[in-house]
Amino acid sequence: MGGRMKDLRALHGRVAATPAPEASIPSAPPEAAPRAKVRSRGADVGSHPLFRQVSVGRAMGQVTGLASPFFRTVSAVDGIRAEVEGRWVDHFASYDYLSMNGDPRLHDAATAAMATYGVSARAARPAGGNLALHEDLDAALAAFVGHEAALVTVSGHATNVAIIRTLMGPEDVVLADALSHNSVFEGIRASGATHVSVPHDDADWLDDWLTANRHKYGRALICVEGLYSMDGDCADLPAFVEVKERHDAWLTLDEAHSFGVLGATGRGLCEATGVDPRRVDVIMGTLSKTLCSCGGVIAGSRDLIDLMRYNAPGFLYSVGMPVPSAAATLAALRIMAAEPERVARLASRGATMLRLMTERGLETGPCAGHAVTPVIIGDSLRTAWVSNGLLEDGVNVPCMVAPALPDRSARLRFFLNADHTDDVLERAADLTAARVRASREVRL
Ligand SMILES: Cc1ncc(COP(=O)(O)O)c(C=O)c1O
Hints:
alpha/beta; four-stranded mixed beta sheet; Aspartate Aminotransferase, domain 2; seven-stranded mixed beta sheet; about 40% helix
């Protein structure tokens, strides 16, 4: 390993170990606090501990000559091709799983709705912004998911925070899969509930833990995902439903990456596993992926949705979904229902990509061959080098590196769309294999 690389690793390790700042709310007015204990926190952004991560990123770029693989500028998109950093490339960084984003039917629906309502919802839904369009979308999503009721919100991330923050409190426990999305962890923090990290997809571990500890808490909430976007695998939903029923707990299922992807008609993990959706207390999803829009949805019993409607801060105190987004989502739901072959095409692309990558000896972890295929490289710098090289080769694929992931598990993530062709997948797999091989020789 090059000396410069070692230096960077050491630097990176130090930054990752930087302690979080202590709580900044003093228990007494500042003038009453003993002066010796007051630690100065200046207004200089550069002195903030989190800024040091930015500095390390910049230093890494300077020392290695590697351009950042993040925040690449996309200036146009045409189906599975995109203009990225000034050149047209094959695009594997889009959550447009069913390739509906460019469909004129979505654009027409958005334009027609704007003629009726304008662009913005103009207000929060409880206070003047409750459009008939929103109510139609709530009802369509409830029917799509197979629950009594649903509620659309303006942010997928804020939806998870709202669900957990609203339902749980300090006397409760949230048992979240270790690979859960950041929004789940933020929700747990905001709720004040005890956080228990469940080893990935281990329903037996969860069962044992609840047997030993359930009695110590008020409510218990289990959080799993339909399709985990880091590894491309799915929760063992029937097992988690059994465990939650045995221990009188709630279960939330995050279908952000599984709407449009899992099940014969793309309704998600319940459809794929034959579980009645009404046995899952809260099904959440995002509208930003298959449904070509922005925002989140909560689906559940009528009581649950009423509870959220009158209490969830990210809904109650936030504007209603913008008109073109709501109309486009409704149109996307209709296209999905009319054209289930899109789901079948995506399923075949997922299986093909997994086969192509494994045939070339690339490490794909527990990937189940759906819409996300990771290629695990391990080392963060090498992963960034491979991603940058692939962009030069005409393939845009995003990467995840430490500290977002545990050290040594950095990876590329190929997001597949129904319109990717076998030729495009094969070319990407060949180029990836070549770049990964070359990365073993390169001195960064
Ligand atoms: C599993 C999961 N849940 C929630 C979210 C947040 O969704 P959004 O980006 O629509 O806010 C994401 C985002 O990618 C996600 O992957």
